[in-house]
Amino acid sequence: MKDLNLKTLKFDRHLDSHLDSFFIEKNGLLEFNPNFITPEFLTTWTFETHLYGEQVAIDHFVITFPSRSELENYAASFRPFGAKIVEGPDLFPINFCAANINVPSDLWLHLMTLLMPAGGLVVLDAPHAVGDQKNRFQQERGLTAVHHVALRVENVQNAGKIWQDKNFKPLSERPLNYGSLTQWFVQNPAGQIIELIERHPGNNATFDCKNIAGLRLSEGRMKKEKTSKI
């Protein structure tokens, strides 16, 4: 994978203006604030905010689209604002890694990642087939729903304890660590996924081909939200 040379995200804990409410929590689930999903905002945002009462640094988050063409049109709107395409667009994960990836086609999706000037990443994805997992997610939650948010942390194990105290349960027995990234999906009773990500020196990608199968399979165990919770 490419070394994206992401900037280190640091807090200024005295400037509340940096902590814009990009996410809206509804009954334990996250949605995007429609006022902040524009290229003008995302290319100037610090990627710092509050989630579930915790001050956090956002590593990346996912915006879903009905189709790859709509995904690419949205990405094109960022060109005048200094964002860079660093992954994709392509079919994920099978066209991103040279080795065969043992992931069911139900979990495939179209994916593109944009690097913002502040160093945060915006991941864009879309279903690859009618009825696949991503399509079902859109049908159940709508296009403003947040599939998952990745938080950049110094130690995934320690961060995992904090989020388990908030009633987020791990989706795998332990963090997935293959020497370049350490990542762990946790989920609350409403079905919201938070990813904890620890970046090792020399690697700034959103995934590693060695752990992508484990990540997607753990994500595939995501609980099915009931429409009554939306």
Structure description:
It is a single chain. The chain has 230 residues and is of the alpha+beta class. It is 17% helix and 30% strand. Strands 3, 4, 5, 6, 7, 8, 9, 10, 11 and 12 form a ten-stranded mixed β-sheet that branches. Strands 1-2 form a two-stranded antiparallel ribbon. Strand 6 (109-115) and strand 7 form a beta hairpin.
What form results from the Cα inertia axes? Answer: globular
Query: Which spans have pLDDT < 50 for at least 5 consecutive residues?
Result: 1-18, 221-230
Approximately how much beta-strand content do the residues carry? 25-35%
Oligomer: single chain
Largest sheet: 10 strands, mixed
* SSE pattern: EEHEEHEEEHEHEEEEH
| Helical residues, percent | 10-25%
Number of strands: 12
Number of helices: 5
Q: What is the typical, i.e. mean, pLDDT?
A: 83
Alpha carbon gap, first and last residue: 36 Å
Instruction: Specify the structural class.
Output: alpha+beta
Brief write-up:
The protein has 230 residues and is of the alpha+beta class. Helix content is 17%, strand content 30%. It has helices at residues 39-42, 68-76, 133-141, 156-165, 212-219; strands at residues 23-26, 29-32, 48-51, 54-64, 84-92, 109-115, 121-127, 148-152, 169-170, 176-177, 181-187, 193-199.
